[in-house]
Specification:
The chain is an alpha/beta fold. The protein is built from ten helices and 13 strands. The protein has a single domain (2-280), classed as Rossmann fold, CATH 3.40.50. The two termini are 31 Å apart. The structure holds adenosine-5'-triphosphate and magnesium ion (MG).
Length: 283
């Protein structure tokens, strides 16, 4: 069953230049959908556009963005506020941005619950503690902490707890592990996978990490210069890509063993300019 259907999504910059050019994709209930592609291709702004969270200066136009049968393009800001957090939730690379530094995590989580539920203080507290426990943090303790009292890995786990707290149907994770050390990144990834399975939500996962795509994704979309150039199952994309750009993208990933002296350069055919050296990327 389709959970999200995006039809003809366009995004424009302040000077009316087109940044994303009429993309279409759909995500099924419970699936892990990976969105990959070169830097600047429009992955993040496309994800922001779904719940109308584009930064100032960017504008979205779409024929339809249907989530659970409801067209998000037709909702008012007040209606959108209700579905953010409950139906669709985000975790970002910049985990600092999930919380303001001025209040405890507990206070901030409490505010989110109050926005969506008419519960007593005790019920809200228990909900937040449980969400924190589910990402391996000591709920009661961490609830009282300020963001700066947590390590980067802990804070990203708390951000994940906040995102998953109201049990969204779609979790959008935009490079959630890029800013973390390898151990914390692996922990956050396996937590997302576990929570996805336990809660039955779908994940839109934006990443440069092909190992993670190999391990977790069900389907994959490839983005280049504001267009989705190829979509398919993980097996189709990784083993038998149709597009030259996808082949180049995959070829630019250095193997774990027997790394060649010179890695293929993504740029000539695929990017038409801005060359991306795989050796410097996260692939
Ligand atoms: N706030 C903004 N104002 C104007 N242009 C923007 C803004 N944010 C992004 N863009 C432009 O939109 C395009 C797509 O950016 P986006 O951040 O979605 O890329 P991305 O695919 O997520 O890249 P990365 O992999 O580096 O995160 C880029 O050309 C970028 O310069
Ligand atoms: Mg991005």
């Amino acid at each position: 069953m389709e959970l999200l259907t995006v039809c003809d999504l366009n995004i424009f910059g302040s000077d009316h230049c087109s940044l994303v050019h009429g993309i279409n994709f759909s995500i099924r209930a419970g699936e892990w959908f990976a969105l990959i592609g070169e830097s600047g291709s429009g992955k993040s702004i496309s994800a922001f556009a779904l719940a109308a969270l584009l930064p100032d200066g960017l504008r979205r136009e779409a024929k339809e963005i249907k989530l659970l049968g409801q067209d998000l393009t037709r909702l008012s800001e007040a209606e959108l506020r209700k579905i953010r957090g409950t139906d669709i939730a985000y975790v970002f690379q910049d985990y600092q941005s999930a919380f303001t530094p001025y209040f405890t995590l507990g206070k901030q989580m409490d505010e989110v619950i109050q926005t969506h539920r008419d519960w007593s203080k005790e019920e809200r507290k228990k909900k937040a503690w449980t969400a924190l426990n589910e990402v391996g943090l000591e709920g009661q303790k961490v609830y009282q902490r300020y963001p700066f009292q947590l390590s980067g890995g802990q804070l990203q786990r708390a951000a994940l707890a906040l995102a998953m707290m109201m049990e969204p149907k779609l979790l959008i994770a935009d490079e959630p592990t890029t800013a973390l050390d390898a151990m914390s990144a692996a922990t956050v990834l396996s937590l997302i996978a576990r929570l996805k399975n336990e809660k039955g939500c779908a994940v839109l996962f934006i990443t440069h990490d092909l190992r993670c795509v190999r391990r977790y994704a069900d389907r994959v979309a490839i983005m280049q210069k504001g267009l989705i150039v190829e979509t398919g199952t993980k097996e189709e994309i990784l083993k038998n890509p149709r597009e030259i750009y996808t082949r180049n993208l995959l070829a630019s990933v250095p193997p774990l063993r027997n790394v060649p002296k010179r890695l293929p350069v993504l740029g000539e055919e695929g990017l038409g300019g801005g060359a991306l050296y795989a050796a410097n990327s996260n692939f």
